[in-house]
Amino acid sequence: MLVGKKITILLFINCLIGLISSAQVNDTLKERKNQLTLDTAKPAPKLIEAYSPRKAIIRSAILPGWGQIYNKKYWKLPLVYGALGTTTYLFFRNLKQYKEAKEAYILATDNNPNNDEQIQQPYYTVKDQPERIRTFRNQVRQNVDYSVLFFIIFWGLNVADAAVDAHLKTFDVSDDLSLRIKPGFSPLARTSGISLVLAIGK
Predict the structure, then answer these.
(1) Which residues have C-beta within 8 Å of that of residue 94, sequence separation ≥ 6?
(2) SS3 for 115-146, per residue?
(3) 20-33 as b/e, with b when 16 or more CB fall inside 10 Å?
């Protein structure tokens, strides 16, 4: 009778252990399933397309705005063409005024009254004061030079902007920032010391 009770107790303990083991296995499987669900629910990390600053520079140097298109910064195109278009317009306008003022000054100082009729307005009204025409001609000539200078500057800024954008396209802006202390050696000063290293990203 005592042996039967012992067998019954052992069977009960075995069943209990089996149930507990089964419950633990089920819990582990559920946890793994939940983890897999969470992992698949997370969006896949976006692959950053590699942008070549060299390509951006060459394209912007050949055609203004091409580097911005390469970097997919389309909103900058109106700024690029607005700046270059304005300086181009001012160049041709000042060049036209310079040619007119130059011709008017030549006609006003040739000592031939018969040619005065060829002087265009507004220079005709001041044909007796050729120095005023000459002063205006020189000012307009200076404006032609300035418009060329600003055109070159804006073209250069367009190239620089494309290069900087291409460099910053692959810049890591993740939250994985860590600061650690690291022993270091300075070859310049030939001394050892401790340095603080800020690790950004991987």
Answers:
(1) 140, 143, 144, 147
(2) HHHHCCCCCHHHCCCHHHHHHHHHHHHHHHHH
(3) eeeeeeeeeeeeee
Tens digits of residue pLDDT in 91-140:
999 999 999 888 888 887 777 766 666 667 777 676 677 788 788 888 98
Peptide bond into 53 cis (omega under 30): no
The H or E element spanning position 95 is helix 77-108
pLDDT digits (tens, 9 = 90+) for 100-112: 888 888 887 777 7
Which pair of structure tokens corresponds to residue 87?
Answer: 């300086």
How many CB atoms within 10 Å of residue 59?
21
What number of other Cβ atoms are within 10 A of residue 138's Cβ? 14
**With a threshold of 0.70, does the pTM exceed it?**
no
